[in-house]
Amino acid sequence: MYRILTGNASRLATIPSRLSIVQNAHPRRSTVFSGKFWSSSSSWKFTKHDTAVLSDAQRRTIYALSSPPGKAGVGVIRISGPDASAVRDALLRSSRGSSLPPPEPWKLQRCRVVHPKSPEQVLDDGLAVFFRGPKSFTTEDVLEIHIHSGRAIVAAVLNAISNLPFCRPAEPGEFTRRAFDGGRLDLTQVEGLRDLIHAETESQRVVALRTAGGELRERFERLRTDIIHCLAMVEALIDFGEGEDLEEGVFEQAREETKRLSETIQSYLNDNRRGEIIRNGIRLAIFGPPNAGKSSLLNFLAQRDAAIVTPIPGTTRDILEVSLDIGGLPVVVADTAGLRQTEDVVESIGVERAKRIVQESDISLCVLSLPETLPSVSQTQLQIPSSVLPLITTNTCFLLNKTDLFHSPTTRLDTRLRLPEGLPDLKFWSVSLSTGEGLSKFLQGLGSTLQEHFNLQADQSSGQMPMITHARHRSHLETASRFIEAFLQYDVNDVVLGAEELRYAAQAVGKISGLIDVEDVLDAVFRDFCIGK
Predict the structure, then answer these.
(1) Which of 84, 161, 255, 325 has the fewest CB atoms within 10 Å, measured from its CB?
(2) How far apart are CA 279 and CA 450, in angstroms?
(3) Kind of pairing, strands 282-287 and 329-335?
(4) In whole angstroms, what is the distance from residue 471 CA to residue 525 CA?
């Protein structure tokens, strides 16, 4: 038997076991802590010390450092869950050492951070703000503690919170998962938020910000609503038939609207993967014969010595990739081995890998030595090495290097060069990677070419963002398109089967925003978040 003191009054309460303390004492999963029973509304003091161990499922209050680790002016520790106010009572004190007054939600408050086992031990001076649910990011009560971001201070505060048995460290993405479960975000906004955190270029930032703001959500929801509208007309036909209760031609009207939806979905799918390219980066492969300047070009683009450069043919033997920002676009540039016949086993493996990378890239840049490709200034047709010719496609551009070794004027050379018969009309730039001649023009031209090649200028001028930004969006839209096409194969005599096809199509679109249960997708999405978000 324990005696429980509440203010000035006392009463006897029989507690049969530790488990009953956890389950019955308070509906919000409070627990016994160092002789005190902490809850979000009050603290109960036991005359006899006891400790109740809670499972992770019972510890619904989570915490994590939400700002990047390392030295900085401010570090933010976020706590979310039903006992966030209990954490506030246990950890925070006024500047005079007394308990803080009740929180005024959404307002910063000066405080001292103390250790719950020894409140006289001040860990840091800081600020705290309390967000009362559901008006918070996670829709739960949230406490943010703003402290100095020294490693020792952050470690001390996190250790202090870990001493509260009803708290546990957050898993990666768990704060955002709770926002999703609480209806604050849909799945497209979750993905947009993750992409915004990882954005490295201006185009990535713009698309991710608009996605996180709900623009994709609205467009996908409008598409799903239109499919459901067609389904409703077909369902009405099943229930009532073409009689007095329904106008004539309902099925034909549903078919016409469904055809328009099919065309809309196809326009989204035939987007040349613009959204996915902006998010993941354009894959650009540099290829050409040995000693043309491929590795020197990579070093120039990366503004560092990313690749080894020597006059010895075959120096580059494996694929070297660097992520860059070119013209505001994310570009993954791959430097490849020089293409030539070789008896060296290792180099031959590198050549085969180079060919495969070029074939799989979104766009390729063939680097050639100008003196070797155009022996005389009087010539206008380039002499392309036979090792390079099979890899030239409509996605290829040319960089003619070593203009400083070309013993004739190169003024307006790019405008009069042409490829051998049978090859498409492609972009040319003439530069000298050793002297820097023409490199500024090349960078501007390459950025414009990438924008034009992937039709990204149209998105910027129209203000429209790509509809598909993730591979799973494309997969679900393709599924919806197949179901809609299947519906269009039925006539009025098979309305029951047609209705099922439309229902499946609506479910496929609903999976994009997470309106339909997709647990297998959710785990994959949220585990990619950093801890604290």
Answers:
(1) 325
(2) 14
(3) parallel
(4) 12
